[in-house]
UniProtKB/TrEMBL annotation, chains A, B:
Keyword Transcription: no
Source organism of the structure: Bhargavaea ginsengi
Single GO molecular function: o-succinylbenzoate-CoA ligase activity
Highest classification ranks of the organism: Bacteria, Bacillati, Bacillota, Bacilli, Bacillales
Gene for this chain: menE
Name of one Pfam family that matches: AMP-binding
Protein name (Swiss-Prot/TrEMBL): 2-succinylbenzoate--CoA ligase
Chain ranges of the AMP-dependent synthetase/ligase domain: 10-342
């Protein structure tokens, strides 16, 4: 299936509607398309061609939106780099994805590796070109890295069809009204943020943008009704609730719902939100499913506490090996929102087996078909909304000459939800501070373990697979 | 792209939501799926297989919905017969489509031709089978006949992808809210009615069904707010407005909009509707585009009187040969909602040329991209919401031994909007009553010309093409 170029089509259909609002400024869909087209011409002025793969390293805010849309208009595949990564992590993703250029803000210039041509836009000359009128559903729009279980981050391809079916199914589930404004405080290089931009283009909906999450501003806008929907993780949600309660404010009647991802929302939060007039829609999704794959309706939030709801309209979910409701197993996902595959070193690993994505997450479906996610990728740590994969940290730890074995698990943290804790078997005595410094050189700050435990051996199962759940349990007991 | 079987998926996602409400009865999505599955088993019990093409001849109402969904679950391609057609017209469509069976209500049994196996459902034995879990977007769900300009009706294939992209684009344009109820007073064998059933399954939306259009009931439900959206043609719309005004009623705040098809809505109607709190969304579509292709936003209804608005999100419209805004020409349409082609005698005629459907309609785009339809298929007559193709009636008239030539054009009618008028060149004198009786035997009642004019010659252009516009003009002058 082909769709018209989303950016140009939207600018043609509703040119005067507000696309992006940020601080005191706003841009209509026509203005956004014009700004993005200017950038696209400068991008093409560097000699790059349609179909090239380029990386974006950005700080967030409206300029990032224009840069992303510029890249899409230029016809590129966009490798979305997380600006919180270290130079070494960025270098891996740029090299693995074979991106031929990196476009970046001046403020991030020193982070981009020397080995890749780095283009800052303003110095480029512009090339006049005609952007594609149609986008094929199989066209890769974005590539986002996710770590998986191997320790080597995998570049996930997200096609136009992936993003489109995700946006459509989301609208069928959450509804869509004239005047909807989605508050985006999520990073735009994440699927949680990027999917808001897709929906904006496809629905003709305004995005209220925060360069980074601002709990005060979010609470104020919810109370004023200047936004109608918001995406948040639990840790952000609770900060917004605290502020509203503290100021004795409620959500304005125009505000409808918070789409809450990144793990189940505790039921006390849901009750507090309801008391403030806020519906909480809990959702389960991942980079490989271009955002939501299942979402729990607000009306079921308390009846089905801990559930991520039912699949969205196009999607199917099953539990591997389950024979009856309640049986636990790996969560398998099928639908047009599932990535067709990876790039780089994992380009030969199939993303789907017989049409099903094997998520690595463990879950169950109850007798009404509601999904409960019991363990994300067995071991995924979600810390302040960022995904942290233990295997990646373990890989760094065992790179230290004095470390024999390492296991990492997420442990609860008041501020971040969860943080990584390291369990290490050493060859000779070593200080936790030294390990921490070692990690800090090689990992983004949020991935650096907060706790270090020195142990005799790591818990493993019969087939020698590390049992990270037991690490977690041991940590809790010890505390 | 594959989608989950819409009927089963919807029953699984929102089993307890109301799918169909009719008179005092209602059915949830689960109940509807169960009823439809029972019918599907009886259909398969006749020996028919998945992929067979069968025709449905029905009277409307909930049983028709279950029959349609039963046919879809059974895996058939459904030829949707218009129950207002004569036995001869039905026979043509059944034969041309090569339908292997006709499923019908008892009340219509005498209308089905003898030559085709006719199955009444209640006498059949049931066969247990497992319906397809997935529907491919290329699967033909429905075949609807449209007459085109040749006099031979053409069977238009409408795929799952056609209906799906139409429903999605409609939601992006019209919005979608919890508690939406779409009032369906359109025949279910027409795309105007069937598309409401598709949207219901895809959105999880309730349909309030009328077996046939009931202006009194429609006005009452709009005033009570028991429905939120309605599809109507101008002739229906004005009757609803008359009743509301006569009773000094207004639309309830929950009622949002009337989607008005079948030709432009005169601006006085739009003003009257606005005064009653009703938004009018004027739309342009056809059987070949599985419902709407362009829709005029309510906010532009008066500013752009006479326009059908802008394309829906997935669609593109251009005017053949137009070099600048305002140039008139044939309307060409492109998008995933456009039929891949015809069945039967037209199966070799391409529906699209280089991805564009040539509608035969004449129109223009203004400088903001709003579509104005100037002439539908040059000559299409829309009478009480039914499409009437002059060529089909002319074909019948020239079949009379005393008729040498015939031309048919639509003329204004207070009750029906337009009715066909016949212009005939005869070989020897003949009474209008005889011609009318001749037509009545061969055409559905609504297609029988209301006026007969005997003329010396028909207006034709240089290439001898009949100029039906001049017939129309002559009739108006003569009146």
């Amino acid at each position: 299936m082909m769709t018209p170029n989303w950016i140009l089509q939207r600018a043609s259909l509703t040119p005067d509607r507000i696309a992006i609002s940020w601080e005191e400024q706003q841009w209509t869909f026509r203005e956004m398309a014009e700004r993005s087209m200017d950038i696209a011409k400068k991008m093409r002025g560097t000699g790059l061609q349609e179909g090239n793969r380029v990386a974006l390293l950005t700080t967030g805010g409206p300029e990032t939106v224009f840069l992303i849309h510029g890249g899409l208009l230029a016809g590129f595949e966009l490798v979305m780099l997380n600006s919180r990564l270290t130079a070494a992590e960025l270098a891996y993703q740029i090299e693995d994805s074979e991106a031929v250029a990196v476009f970046t803000d001046d403020s991030l210039l020193d982070r981009a590796p020397d080995s890749t041509p780095v283009s800052r836009l303003l110095c480029g000359k512009a090339e006049d070109f005609k952007p594609a009128e149609l986008w094929h559903e199989d066209r890769t729009l974005t590539i986002m890295y996710t770590s998986g279980t191997t320790g080597f981050p995998k570049g996930v391809r997200q096609t136009a069809g992936n993003h489109l079916s995700s946006a459509a199914a989301s609208a069928f589930n959450m509804g869509l009204q004239d005047g909807d404004v989605w508050l985006c405080a999520m990073p735009l290089f994440h699927i949680s943020g990027f999917s808001i931009l897709s929906r904006s283009l496809i629905y003709g909906m305004t995005v209220r943008l925060q360069s980074k999450f601002d709990a005060e501003a979010s609470a104020r806008e919810i109370a004023e009704g200047s936004v109608t929907t918001m995406s948040a993780v639990s840790a952000q949600l609770v900060r917004v609730l605290d502020i509203l309660e503290g100021r004795k404010l409620r959500a304005d009647g125009r505000f409808r719902q918070i789409l809450a991802g990144g793990g189940p929302v505790p039921s006390p939060y849901i009750r507090r939100a309801e008391a403030l007039g806020i519906q909480i829609l809990q959702t389960y999704g991942m980079t490989e499913t271009s955002s939501q794959t299942a979402t729990l309706a607000a009306e079921d939030a308390l009846r089905k506490t801990g559930s991520s709801g039912k699949p969205l309209f196009f999607n199917r979910i099953r539990i591997e090996g389950a024979e009856k409701p309640g049986d636990e197993g790996e969560i398998l996902i099928s639908g047009p929102h599932v990535t067709p595959g990876y790039v780089g070193r994992f380009s030969d690993s199939p993303a789907q087996v017989d049409g099903w994505l094997h998520t690595g997450d463990i879950g169950k479906l109850d007798d009404e078909g509601f999904l409960y996610v019991l363990d994300r990728r067995s071991d995924l740590i979600i810390s302040g909304g960022e995904n942290i994969y233990p295997a990646e940290i373990e890989q760094v730890l065992v790179g230290h000459p004095d470390v024999a074995e390492a296991g990492v698990a997420g442990v609860e943290d008041k501020h971040w939800g969860h943080v990584p804790a390291a369990f290490v078997v050493v060859r000779k005595a070593i200080a936790a501070e030294e390990l921490e410094a070692f990690c800090r050189e090689r990992l983004a700050p949020y991935k650096v373990p907060k706790y270090y435990r020195f142990v005799e051996e790591l818990p493993r199962n019969a087939s020698n697979k590390l049992l990270r759940r037991e690490l977690r349990a041991a940590f809790e007991i010890e505390k």
